[in-house]
Design goal:
The protein is built from 6 helices and no strands. With 156 residues, it is mostly helical. It has one domain. Helix 2 packs antiparallel against helix 4, helix 4 crosses helix 5 and helix 4 crosses helix 6. The termini are far apart.
Length: 156
């Protein structure tokens, strides 16, 4: 006979389940990117489509990360941080994700002779746009959450 899962396992499962509900946003942005690149070859004909894709990628990953942080706060994994602390944590995680995305592009470029990056200016613009998307989403989110019945961070 097996032992029932302990409290930590149940809490982590609950966090994962609730957080994953927001995963649709970054998955959607990535799916749109793949369809545009592989099905329609849009990046060859309209390379500037990369600009809104990185911006909305920043918005989408921030949406997902903020939801994950909010669930972690609700489950008391992070204590009782205020909105600013959660926003800062989310921003830093989104910025780190943006940087690692560009690392992944560089690795693919060098490992598989691809050309995802068009140079330093392109890479810097991509990171700027992802981080800008994060900032704008976070700046608009508190105003939206105050009007909703579900507060973003435990009513704070």
């Amino acid at each position: 006979m097996t032992n029932p899962p302990n409290l930590l396992t149940r809490s982590l499962t609950l966090w994962f389940t609730r957080s994953s509900r927001a995963a649709w946003a970054p998955i959607l942005v990535f799916a749109i990117h793949v369809v545009l690149a592989k099905v329609f070859d849009v990046y060859t004909h309209f390379p500037n489509i990369d600009i809104p894709m990185h911006f909305f990628g920043g918005v989408a990953i921030t949406y997902f990360l903020l939801r994950s942080a909010t669930v972690a706060v609700d489950l008391n994994f992070l204590g009782s941080p205020n909105r600013a602390a959660v926003a800062l944590l989310t921003f830093l995680a989104a910025s780190t994700t943006t940087i690692f995305w560009e690392f992944a592009e560089w690795i693919f470029d060098h490992s598989f002779q691809r050309q995802f990056q068009a140079g330093l200016n392109d890479t810097m613009l991509d990171m700027f746009l992802g981080i800008l998307g994060s900032i704008i989403y976070l700046a608009l989110n508190p105003a939206l959450s105050r009007r909703s019945s579900n507060s973003t961070i435990n009513g704070r």
